Amino acid sequence: MFKSWNNMSKSFMVLSAFVAWSAVSFSLPGTSSALLISELGGQLVLDTNTNEVWVTNLNQFSNMNYTTQVSVIAALSFSGYTGFHMASLSEVETLVPYGPTAIFAAPFIPNSKSNPQYLWGRTSTPDWVGPNGPLNHWDFIIFNDVSGAPFYSPLGASGFDINGNDPADPRSGAWVVGTPIPEPCTFILLGTGMAGLASSRLRRRKK
Questions:
Q1: What is the mean pLDDT of residues 164-185?
Q2: Is-contact 141 180, C-beta < 8 A?
Q3: Which pLDDT score, from 0 to 100, does residue 8 have?
Q4: What's the DSSP call for residue 135?
Q5: Which residue from 82, 134, 153, 162 has the least number of CB within 10 angstroms?
Q6: Distance, CA of 11 to CA of 193 (rounded, Å)
Q7: HEC secondary structure over 59-95
Q8: What is the maximum span of the chain, computed from C-alpha positions, in angstroms?
Q9: In whole angstroms, what is the distance from residue 46 CA to residue 40 CA?
């Protein structure tokens, strides 16, 4: 009876560890087929390759200089997600392999409803650095020409002011990225399973 219960306990521990490991693994970058998934009613897009979430409406950060954009982004709050910041040029470039069709269907909100559509936003990567620090930052545009010619380009900001803050631009918003908050129960389950396995091995060694 005791041996049977012990075997069942071991099986449960192994199963718990496997289930938790699977949940964690599939939330990590590069562990599953890359997809762009709409989250929170289209307010965010989850990139399953990097496990990052993108704010879909770049336009809400237009007509703001760099300092104002950073301040507004820092105040963003979405339930279940954290760490929102203006994306670097290299972070935005992780979207490029998906291609314009997938990106615009994600659903990012274009800056223009006309032909062509484009996603144009400022990044946190300095474009030109002076003696007192960055004077402006790279913009990045993803262009969706309905004729079928995709175009991706980092663009230097249109100018800079004497205070070192990129000027407000009605054409350019900001690329904003964050991360999902891990579910505590997943890590509790993983910890329980791993602790149980460790305890089982220790008892086996003592015998």
A1: 81
A2: no
A3: 47
A4: E
A5: 162
A6: 10
A7: HHHCCCCHHHHHHHHHCCCCCCEEEEEECCHHHHHCC
A8: 81
A9: 10
